[in-house]
Amino acid sequence: MARRGSYAKGIAKREEILTAALEVIARNGYGRASVRELADAVGLSQAGLLHYFSSKEELFAEILRKRDEVDRETIAAADADHELSMLDGFVQVIRHNVDVPGLVQLYARLSTEATEPEHAARPFFDERFKAFREMAAEGIRESQRDGELPADLDPDRVATMLLALADGLQTQWLMDPSIDMAAHIEDFIGILRRSPTA
Questions:
Q1: By the 8 A CB rule, do 155 and 141 touch?
Q2: What is the pLDDT of residues 93-107, one digit of tens each?
Q3: What percentage of the chain carries pLDDT values higher than 70?
């Protein structure tokens, strides 16, 4: 029983660390958020913080996983009646990213580093990209059934394009914050909606 209680405490501490890390990175930026600062935010030493993660890279991947979880909960709460399409929800997430540049910077940097096959964050990004493409493709199929998108669009290809567009826009926005990422995504969706049907 003590072991089960210890396990539950470990899970709770990880959640506390990830929640605090989201706030610190969103506020101070990824480049200025050291492991020491993240540890200080939850009253641990650096070694104590890393006890809960296999590496610094895994810690940062888990921070991004937590960010995705919070984004999903925020969209679900805003869309209690389930009237928001997947595409509209995606635009909301992109719009929200403007408020958390440090997390966008972390995502951009870590996703590039994770192209190395042995990188600790590689499994997170493999899983995330696959899940996004599946979710987006299903949302596109639903929009096609509802007559909002042309039936001849390939949902899997469009989902891949949406992910590439969003990631590319985030990189450009980090270099030039005047770029309106959400507006560009909305423009792309508008182009899809105007596409000629087969």
A1: yes
A2: 899 899 889 999 999
A3: 90
